[in-house]
Design goal:
The complex is a heterodimer of chains A (342) and B (359). Chain A is an all-alpha fold and 342 residues long. Chain A is 59% helix and 2% strand. The relative contact order of chain A is 0.15. The relative contact order of chain B is 0.14. Chain B is elongated, with a radius of gyration of 36 Å. Chain B is 60% helix and 2% strand. Chain B is built from 10 helices and 2 strands; from the N terminus they run βαααααααβααα. A two-stranded antiparallel ribbon of chain B has the order 1-2. Classes of the chains: A mainly alpha (342), B mainly alpha (359). Chains A and B meet through helix 4 of A and helix 5 of B. Chain A: It is found in: Membrane. Chain A: InterPro entries: Peripherin/rom-1, Peripherin/rom-1_CS, Peripherin_LEL, Tetraspanin/Peripherin, Tetraspanin_EC2_sf. Chain A: Keywords: Cell adhesion, Disulfide bond, Glycoprotein, Membrane, Transmembrane, Transmembrane helix.
């Protein structure tokens, strides 16, 4: 009892072949899209890698690139098979490769499913990497004379300007680190000496933020120094006033950017899985319809097409039996030995 | 004596028609590219319209868009003519429209050359417009509570950050205007009162710049107040230190940006001029070759194609005579008037003559 049988005449077969050919080429375009998204994601991770301590994981974009290339190859091959399917001579040379090809498609779908899962799960890893990386970036902001870290200031400033954020959780992270290098501090000044002596580690801490935290949309010229001191500025109360610096933290801003990218890629991969399954079903129908033609010489004859030759349960039973026999080929058959001894 | 005659066999005519069909479709595509370039340039100019005083420079993208659309239409017509050219029944209806087509194509080429010239000629006008627009922008920076000007601050800040520039000519332009609104000034403070009294217009002037002038690539945290006061900052000399502000003025930055944009469209425009000219010349050859072939006894035989039927001077003379005869249609011809009065006299004499023998 075949699973989901459909009767085919010549016209239906031709329409199926044409439709399937178009769907395969659509899948090739989707494969190219996945490949370019993988490259885009990789470039974005590279651009922000300084914010993540250079130990971000490139697993997802690498997988995407691989999957995109595979999709292009597999679907182009499927399209070629469809193109040749209505010509019995050309189709005959593809026939033996069809069963392994369908198994390959199954494996490819499983890989796509794994990639989609990773897209959703790796967001946690990105979040943790960002938290750690931004903390270090803020710490090394002042080290513009240390080789290997001299561009940290520029990168962090440009990131804060681009993503409209300030600090790690919020702007108060800047109050806890010394972000002005000692080269620019007058150590003989009393004010400076007070600040340096005010904490255990001898850091010059202040209630100020860098200029890149300033919000251009605020009506007041940017107040970036003495933020907690109400008397330092006219008509200013830092508790109630809407500050004219960005209040969002950069970890949240960067994470929402990456997570929206990864979520949309994941959704696209799920759509690709559905498209690939449709391709596989169509190809199975087409091949079975071509194989069951009663009179191969007469193209007008009717034929049957199906998804599985027997029902779902029976197919699974067969598969399990096959796996068991595969395991048993290595075992010695006891009955056989005893007969030969006798 | 025809100008630049070329012999055409039937096969050569067919090849010319096919080649020209392809060339005209390529020209249609390039016309689309020119239109898109015009749209892009116009969008970029409109984005910064707030810091521009006049819109004279907009004539460049307007002409580009117009020429792009016209070129798409003209070259599509050329491809239709090619398709009909090898069919003797359909070709004759194109006789008069082709004259108009040649005129339009020549006008398009002239307009494209004019665009290239204009984009260089209008650079001065663009700079003037930017100078006035930026000066106003800097003056109204503090007016974030005045309707109509409340976004001037945000516009100027974003402009300075994006184009990495400060002020109109340089950062010192900010020293000459009050860019801190009176709402945020404590008029009881001695420092504020001193600064206000220090100038005639009672403006609060300071040697400081807004935060958007800060350069992120500088190794030192941004110094933007008390810029001329060496004692205000540690290890700081106003004269010799490389300030950690942007040194370029925004007028220069914007002019350079737009000039670069227009220069990059230059090669595209030049290639469109070349393609349009080649379509023009090839279509003229095809037209003359097919027309001379149609009057031959054997339409499939050899014919000659030329650019002008007679030489250049003779063609100009002919055109002059044609133009003068067209003008003369409206005038009364004095010779014809005399001739008709003589004929009337002669008729009158004839009428008078017969009655005398009768009587």
């Amino acid at each position: 009892m075949p699973f989901m049988p459909v009767k085919f005449n010549l016209q239906k077969r031709v329409k199926l072949a044409q439709g399937l050919w178009m769907i395969y080429w659509l899948s090739v375009i989707v494969g190219i899209l996945l490949f370019s998204l993988g490259i885009f994601f990789k470039i974005e991770l590279r651009k922000r890698s300084e914010m993540m301590d250079n130990n971000e994981s490139h697993l997802v974009p690498n997988l995407l690139i691989l999957v995109g290339l595979l999709a292009c190859g597999v679907n182009a091959f499927g399209g070629k098979v469809c193109h040749d399917s209505l010509d019995p001579i050309k189709f005959a040379k593809w026939k033996p490769m069809l069963k392994p090809f369908l198994l390959l498609c199954c494996g490819f779908n499983a890989l796509l499913l794994l990639t989609a899962l990773l897209c959703f799960l790796m967001q946690f890893a990105v979040y943790l990497t960002l938290a750690e990386g931004l903390k270090n970036s803020i710490k090394f902001y002042k080290d513009t004379d240390t080789p290997g870290r001299c561009f940290m200031k520029r990168t962090l400033d440009l990131t804060q300007i681009e993503f409209r954020c300030c600090g790690n959780n919020n702007f108060r992270d800047w109050f806890e680190v010394q972000w002005i290098s000692n080269r620019y501090l007058d150590m003989s000044n009393d004010l400076v000496k007070d600040r340096v002596l005010s904490n255990v580690e001898g850091k010059y801490l202040m209630d100020s933020v860098p200029f890149s935290c300033c919000n251009p949309g605020s009506p007041r010229p940017c107040i970036q120094h003495h933020l907690t001191n109400n008397s330092a500025h006219y008509d200013y109360d830092h508790r109630i006033e809407e500050l004219n610096i960005w209040t969002r933290g950069c970890r949240e801003a960067l994470f929402s950017y990456f997570s929206s990218m990864m979520t949309s890629i994941g959704v696209l991969i799920i759509a690709t899985i559905i498209l690939e399954s449709v391709d596989m079903a169509g190809l199975k129908y087409l091949t079975t319809a071509l194989e069951t033609m009663e009179d191969p010489e007469n193209p007008e004859c009717e034929s049957d097409g199906w998804l599985l030759e027997k029902g779902v349960k029976e197919t699974f039973g067969d598969l399990l039996a096959k796996l068991k026999t595969l395991g048993k080929t290595n075992q010695v058959v006891e009955g056989g030995d005893s007969v030969s001894i006798l | 004596m025809a100008l630049l005659k070329i012999k055409f066999t039937q096969q050569r005519r067919v090849h010319l028609a096919q080649g020209l069909w392809l060339l005209s479709w390529m020209a249609v595509m390039w016309g689309g590219v020119i239109f898109c370039l015009g749209v892009y340039l116009k969008t970029e100019l409109l984005r910064r319209a707030e810091v521009m005083d006049n819109t004279e420079i907009h004539v460049v993208p307007n002409i580009l868009m117009m020429v792009g659309l016209a070129s798409i239409g003209t070259n599509w017509v050329a491809s239709r003519v090619c398709q009909d050219s090898l069919d003797p029944t359909r070709f004759p209806r194109w006789k008069v429209p082709l004259l108009a087509w040649f005129a339009v194509a020549t006008v398009l080429c002239c307009l494209l050359i004019a665009v290239v010239a204009l984009s260089y000629a209008l650079q001065g006008s663009l700079e003037e417009s930017l100078k006035v627009g930026l000066r106003n922008g800097i003056r109204f920076y503090k007016d974030t509570d005045v309707p109509g000007r409340c976004f001037q601050k945000e516009t100027i800040d974003r402009l300075q950050m994006e184009f990495r520039c400060c002020g109109n000519n340089n950062f010192k332009d900010w020293f000459e205007v009050q860019w801190v609104s009176n709402r945020y000034l404590d008029f009881t403070s001695k420092d504020v009162k001193d600064r206000i009294r220090s100038n005639v217009d009672n403006r609060y002037l300071l040697d400081g710049v807004p935060f958007s002038c800060c350069n992120p690539t500088s190794p030192r945290p941004c110094l933007r107040y008390h810029l001329t006061d060496n004692n205000a900052h540690f290890n700081y000399d106003y004269q010799s230190e490389e300030l950690n502000l942007y040194s370029r003025g925004c007028r220069q930055a914007l002019t350079d940006y737009y000039m670069e944009l227009m220069n990059s469209t230059g090669p595209g425009v030049l290639s469109v001029i070349l393609i349009q000219l080649s379509v023009l010349l090839s279509l003229r050859y095809l037209q003359t070759a097919v027309e001379t072939a149609m009057v031959l006894e054997d339409p499939e035989g050899d014919s000659e194609g030329y650019l002008l039927e007679k030489g250049v001077k003779e063609t100009i003379e002919d055109l002059k005579i044609n133009a003068l005869t067209m003008l003369k249609f409206g005038q009364v011809d004095p010779n014809a008037a005399e001739g008709s009065s003589e004929v009337a006299d002669a008729e009158k004499d004839e009428k008078d003559a017969p009655p005398s023998p009768a009587s």
